[in-house]
Amino acid sequence: MAGILAWFWNERFWLPHNVTWADLKNTEEATFPQAEDLYVACPLAFCIFMIRLLFERFIGRPCASGLKIQANGPQKAQPNAILEKVFTAITKHPDEKRLEGLSKQLDWDVRTIQRWFRQRRNQEKPSTLARFCESMWRFTFYLYIFTYGVRFLKKSPWLWNTKECWYNYPYQPLTVDIHYYYLLELSFYLSLLFSQFTDIRRKDFPIMFLHHVATISLIVFSYVNNMARVGTLVMCLHDAADVLIEAAKMANYAKCQILCNLLFAMFAILFISSRLGVYPVWILNTTLFESWEIVGPFPSWWVFNLLLILLQLLHSFWSYLIVKTACRAISKGKVSHCLAFISGYSATNDSCPSSSNRVFGHVF
Question: Which of 20, 74, 171, 296 shows its CA 20 to 30 Å from the CA of 63?
Answer without folding.
Answer: 74
